[in-house]
Amino acid sequence: MNFSKFLRSFTIGFLGLSHIIRSEQNMRLHCCAAIGVIIAGFVFSLAAWEWVVILFCLGLVISAECLNKAVERLADRVTREQDPLIKQAKDCGSAAVLVVAITAAAVGGVIFLPKIWALAGR
Fold first, then answer.
1. Which of 2, 35, 118, 119 has minimal Cβ neighbours within 10 Å of its Cβ?
2. Tens of pLDDT along 11-54?
3. How far apart are CA 27 and CA 66, in angstroms?
4. 107 near 60, Cβ under 8 Å?
5. d(CA 60, CA 102)
6. Residue set of the binding site
């Protein structure tokens, strides 16, 4: 394995992440939510298994948004004209982000709501 190629792949990945954060409002929203969830995790002293689940969900949401952006960019490169199949591809990419985000929110609710209720009941 060539170590410089290995490091270059990380650089390329971070360039892509930087681009999507700068160019996509939804990605900035996901990142702000992720920061909020991580802060809440420290405030509520999450157990190790809870951290694993939360971090996995955060990674899935951000990855889904990146993949959706890749689909949109490729589709726009193919044609800017109205095409029903390209619209369906873009809609399906957006749906994937929606499903993962809703699932992550539900997981967050399962983990955080009992902690919030216990705190409020004091």
1. 2
2. 999 999 999 999 999 999 999 999 999 999 999 999 999 999 99
3. 8
4. no
5. 11
6. 24, 65, 72, 90-91, 94
- Catalytic residues, by residue number, are 65
Alpha carbon distance 62, 18 (integer Å): 12
How does pLDDT run across 63-106, given as a tens digit for each residue? 999 999 999 999 999 988 999 999 999 999 999 999 999 999 99
119 closest CA partner among 52, 40, 55, 47: 40
Amino acid at 16: G
Query: What residues form the annotated binding site for ATP?
Result: 24, 72, 90-91
Q: Rounded CA gap, 57 and 46, in Å?
A: 15
Binding residues for a divalent metal cation: 24, 72
By residue range, what is the domain housing residue 75? 3-120
Number of domains in the chain: 1
Q: Quote the pTM value.
A: 0.89
Instruction: Please name the helix (run of DSSP H) or strand (run of DSSP E) that holds residue 13, with its range, or none.
Output: helix 3-23
